[in-house]
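Supplementary Methods S3. Input chains for the assembly prediction are listed below.
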Amino acid sequence: MKRHISCLVNMAFFITIMISLAQAAEYPAPEPTVPPQHLQILSSTDEGVMKSLIADFQQQQPNIAVEYIDLNSVPLYERFLQDYKNDATSDLIISSAMDLQIKLVNDGYAATHSTELLQWLPEWAQWRQQAFGFTSEPAVMVYNKKLLQGQDIPQNRFELIELLRDQTERFKGRIGTYDIQRSGLGYLFASQDAQQASTWGRLTENLNSVKVKLYDSTSQMLNAVRSGELKLGYNVLGSYAFSAVSHSDELGMILSSDYTLAMSRVAFVSNRARNPEAGHQFLDYLLSERGQRLLAVEAKLYPIHPKVTGGATLTDLQQDTQNRGPLKLIKLGPALLTYQDQMKKENFLSEWRKVIR
Amino acid sequence: MLSNSGSLRVRLAALFGLVLLVGGALVLFATSNFATQAADEAYDKLLASAALTAMENLSVKNKKIAFDLPYASLDTLSLSENDRVTYRLKSESSGLLTGYDGLPEPNLPAMAEDYKNGKPHFFTAAYKGEDFRFIVLERLLVESGVQEKVWLQMGQSRLARTSLARDLTLKALVGIIALIILGLLFVWLAAGWSLRPLFKVEDELLQRKPTDLQPLTTQVPSEATHLVEAINRFMQRLQRNQDRNHAFIAEAAHQLRTPLASLQAQAELAAEDVDSEVFRERAERIRRNAQETNSRINQLLSYATLAHRVDVLIPEPVVLEEVVAKCLADLAPIAITQGVELSFDNNISDVKVTADPEALREVLRNLVDNSLKYGQENTTQQAVHVSLEHSENLDWVTLQVRDYGSGLPEELLQQVTRRFGRGEFRQQSGSGLGLAIVEQIVRGLGGKLELENGIQGGLKARLLLPVSS
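Predicted structure tokens for the full assembly:
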């Protein structure tokens, strides 16, 4: 993995790659009108996951053509700021990097969205009526069922630490997690771990002693666990894990019983959007019962609507964790800015680099 | 301005409502200021707590300033739900250490003043299109190799503050509106209650018989006593007028019935007469009687006109000489037919009195007429002298009409002056009737009438009138 490279250089390199790799999927309007209605979504969620939602949205709004730009969360943040400087941004910004999204909203880039239809929306899932969390996806441990069985399966972080400490050799190079220098989501989970619990220090030390493998993306990590390259992945995004586990006999998923973090994908409408109206419409759709149901059934993204139940939904997640341990929903708000503080971030990452060699 | 008509209640309510509105507006203004201050105080504590928490994580490590922004700090600020936050850590030598660039700068003297008093420095400034409230904390780091001042500036938009202030103000507004409504209701009821005595007066007046002109007996508050007194005085005048009219009608009936009966009797006798000489004599008597009756009717009507006029005199400055001259000119033909000398001595030229000219002329006409009619019997000097001179008191003038006849009997002189006030003139005949009119009018003009028998006989009628200034 990347070592001893300046974080900034690393980041810049990464951004260039990602921008060049940006995928823009076009969904022409089924029934275009004059003038044509165009919605541009800038999102860190894989286009494949959102496909069915966009199609369903276009059934309701057949006159809107949708352009879906798929970027990783950090380049997405940079691209938005660049667009904003040029006075024309995408209409709806969706990212799993809650902290970056909150920073954009806090710094005044978002338009206010009418919450008249959203009386059911829980407090933690919105901020300033500008930032809206529409999913609640847990950070889980994913393990290979063939390689990890019975008593060896850790049920919480304490057991994981114990396992790694006691059987260091057995797990050397067989544990994976996000590279928090390159994955915005990984950084978010790690910073929340550091902030929530005293286990973080010990966990990183033990991850280091087993030579943890670092990944940029969830799917890479899931593939590695499935293939048996990894025995266990830590802090894996639960929504992708849920799909993977349900499609594979090799994979198992653990909701940590000491606490389970849950992050939200955050959407906001830019206040320099080219077509803000369409942005608001899609946001309303994402939070509608119909959209939320589709998020559960098709995208498996743990939608938060209380009436949507079964499988990958917040209601089921709440039931699953009820008897296991606390579910810690990351609340939308300015506290998320803390780990975006330059000094804090630098310290946190340098501590991380010091430990994870 | 409010017009004089309209409902007292509405006037009171409008006035009181205006006072309440102005008062309410002042209270609301004060409350709004107070609420803003209170909201600022409350949320300033939150801001101070967040900044102080953060300040605790400021340290020196390896000769460098280290700052670990605690999660709790910004989490504290998220207690004011929808407010944006910003912060920066700045040092004397290296400028911005972490946080946001481009925050509004504090006013340095004001900040120094606050620090001198041991208080954190707060200020409000516009930032990124919104009003922000800022706190600036200062700390002098003196540790292994580092000696430097650092400032932590933390800011929060004012949404929660304005909404709290608006909330407080709205609650006060509800109270103020309730108070205004209660006040108006109170005025409405109080006005009704206060006006009740007036309604009682109204009732008493409505229930009276048309002829009842007795004073009102309803007890009224002091503010309404003048009104009731005025009503009572008015009714008194009405009563006097009515009494006078009754007396006049009775008198007129009496005065007319007797001569008419006598005329009828004489006419019946004349009808039976065959002797043309006797018939002529009777006819002549009838003619004289008719003439006398006619004159009496004229006097009665004249009295009625003037008696009415007494109540409606319209005084104005009048040149007395002109009135006298005109009046005498009118009467001159009668004097000439009767062979009476009519003279006018004016000892003051151009004197003006304040009087109703019509009434004054009538008075003078009556006096001179009386003298021409009744002052020429049993006399050697057939004359009427009118003279105008100053009274002893220089503010008054005396207009005297003098004849040289037999004058008036002493008791009649008394009667004339005594009886007029009561509006009675029964049993008076001839000159008495005229004098009754004159006396009443003169009194209405603010003057006096003096009657006196001359030493060498004849009647002196003196009219004393105030000179107009």
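Residues 8-166 of chain B form one domain. Chain B touches chain A at residues 66-71, 73-75, 77-78, 81-86, 89, 97-99, 128-130 (CB under 8 Å).
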